[in-house]
Amino acid sequence: MTKEGSDGTDLSGAWKSLSKALREDEKYPREDVALEGIRDQEYRTRDRCLSETFFTSRVVTIPDTLFAQYDFMTCRSFMGLMPEINRAWISIDQRLFLWNYASDHEADFHSFDEMQQVIVAVGLVQPAKGIFLDTITHLLVVATPVEIVLLGVGPSEENPQSLELLRTDLKAPADGILFTSIVGTINGRILLLDNEGRIHEMIYQTEGQWFSRKCYLRDLTTPLFAKLLPTFIPYPLTGTVDHIVRIVVDNSRGLLYAHTEQSHIKVFCLEGYTQGTFELLQEFEFSNSIQASITRGSRGRTAIKIVSLHPIPSQTDVNVSLVALTSSGHRLYFAPTSKYRPSDPSTCEIRLVYIRHSGRSLEDAEVHASCYSRGTNLMAASIGNEMDSLITTSIDPVRISYTGGMMIKRYTELMESRPLDGRVWDIVEARGPLNPFTVDLLGPGRGLFVDDPAILGNELYTQFQYSCRQFIVLTNLGVGIVEKLRPVDQLIRLLATAQVQPSHFDQFAQIYGNAEVCAMCIAILCGHFNGIEGGNRSSPMVSSYTGVMDQTRLMLAHLAGRPAYDDPMVSTSSPPAAQPSGAPTQSTGLPGVVALATPTDVRYSARHQGLVLYISRILRPIWQQRLSNLCVTVPVANLSSEQSVYAVLRPIQDQLLGIQEFLESLRVGMSADMSNIHLGDQADAWLRERKSLEQLAQLITFSRESISFLLFLIDHRVKDILAKSDVAAQKTFGTMTFESFVVETEKSQALRFELTKSLVMMVGGDGAPTMTQRLPVDTVSESLYQRCPVLYAQDRLGLIKGNEHLQQALAAQDGMEVDRLLTMALRHYTLSLDQMDLSELIRVTNCFNAKNFHM
């Protein structure tokens, strides 16, 4: 296919560079593939002054008002996190407090003090559909030994940012049972675990039935005959009871995982079962061989137990379904026994595929709380009576490398450790808007575009699309916000230090490579800095905006390098083969050996390669998307269809504008550099790089204006525009990708013309539908030219203006007005004859004949 811009500019070089960068990034392996070659104890540490991976951005202490409620000698208190609503819950005897840790106001908390007994467990779940008002977004489940109460949670009418607790009159007797944890499913089921290892379900419905109440508990794990035994007869009658101690839901597969005191894992199937029922699919035994494999590398440890389970959603990894964390910090990876199929519960059974050993920081520690998500692991280990240590591990993206074009199937992990004041109660990942790690993935063609799991794991690849991940650590003293810094965040922190030196530039480049660091520098100079820390330039993370920008320019100049030709050594005992006329050659001083410099041997500078990396990663989310997917999407994450599209396209468009401005400044700088170059082959390399940069600039321009055109269609109801277009245009629009729309000139230009013609007809016709931003018919061309001045250059507006005047003439009633409009239309058509095919000429002629217009 032809790779030309709308003005005939050759884009093949820019297109090839971009495609190559995209292919290289897509070679990044999935986590399960990388695990195949990982080595035991392979953890690395870095100099925190150069590249700290985790950063505590904020510490919020529990408000004094809540501390005043404690009677440390007699009260019973529990706490936990609810990231879905940005709240921490704290129970003090029979009182419950929901504390907004994200608020700047110390007294931002709700209290609920209507319980008569000590609160022993609290959970936040999604409500079942059709039972509650739409204003209730979650259910708060509060359990005491006497009863379990459901409270509705929703935004306040006065302030949507605030929460309101609503009484539902739904409660069930607890019959003296002490519950330890409460979890929920996406379809509204509520599951509770008691201190004797039994799993219960809280059944709730709109109305009571003949043999059941409106709200009641059902024991799911005790057999029916055991329920008929007198209370003084224990069950089971013989043997040791291995109680379940923790449960967790995998909503993507419809499963409930549980682990016992002896670290056995049970898998229950919820999918396809009604309220009050489930099926035990499998019990995986924590065998002696597994215990021995773990203790073999753990000095002085004899008893190691599983302390937490972390389901891996099927949308993010089909080959790893569960990660279990032990008290020693070891991670056990489980995979499905066969390819997961929702209709076949047997595919949900698991098998142990890998044991990841802990590092030296955990040799003597006892892990008691953790959070694992997408290769990132945070663990709390006890180091004293009143202190914990936070140990973090994460994938080191630069240690997954290539050999002979093949990806090495192994990676290393980075490990950091820091002390914490207080004892950790809970660790969760914060939920942010459109965050791919926390928002449920929807699948291809359903709303926002879903990245391949391997791509999501490549932080170098995604750092310019997604904000840094945040984790919340709850202790008995307060909340700490721990950020997982992207490489660009690490660079900004380095550049913000007052003592930064050129030697630090080289040390940072040794970690990530010159091209990657240049890509980060370009991102900062193009305005990506404004997105760091939510655009707060005065945040503790960055001390001086101006200073960072100045240091970034210095670092980019220091690492940019120069384009040059490779010197392939061609050994021959005869005279070298004839070279094309004008091809540069360079003598090596060795008999019969000539270094040939051909156009394909040019090695672009690190600055050029970094720019290609940055552009490819900005365009990647939409580059291979069909136009129909880009323009027509379903509402997601509380956004309308149009808002969902704008949430994706607008930021990309803004970033492309920043790149254009950077390229303009770079063009001026390269002209100055060229004046100091005298060697022929070196000058030719600079010329080739400058030509490549010009092509990249053209590609950016066409991409920006193509996005503007698509947004213009969305503003004016793209479905209605397509309905008035011919079948060929509809088919092309449904199959053409954004990449083709940018680089395939003839097809994209024809499609734009047909859609524009349909828009003119729709706006000017009788009974035109109401539009979000309706334009007068004679301003469509001007509006398109303002948005897309290159795609709609003045010499290409003739057809559009001719169609506008023709459409107005067909709708006009006054004879003189019709003649005036047709005369103007004819003038525009006459100037655009070379752009009109035969079918278009016939259509226009027929319209003129219908109005009896003859010249």
From TrEMBL:
Keyword Metal-binding: no
Pfam families on file: Nucleoporin_C (PF03177), Nucleoporin_N (PF08801)
Predominant localisation class: nucleus
Gene Ontology molecular function: structural constituent of nuclear pore
Keywords: Nucleus, Transport
Domain Nucleoporin Nup133/Nup155-like C-terminal: 605-853
GO terms under biological process: protein import into nucleus; protein localization to nuclear inner membrane; RNA export from nucleus; transcription-dependent tethering of RNA polymerase II gene DNA at nuclear periphery
Chain segments annotated as coiled-coil in the UniProt record: none
Cell wall biogenesis/degradation among keywords: no
Location in the cell: Nucleus
Disordered: annotated segments: 567-589
Family: Belongs to the non-repetitive/WGA-negative nucleoporin family.
This protein's name: Nup133 N terminal like-domain-containing protein
Organism annotation: Piptocephalis cylindrospora
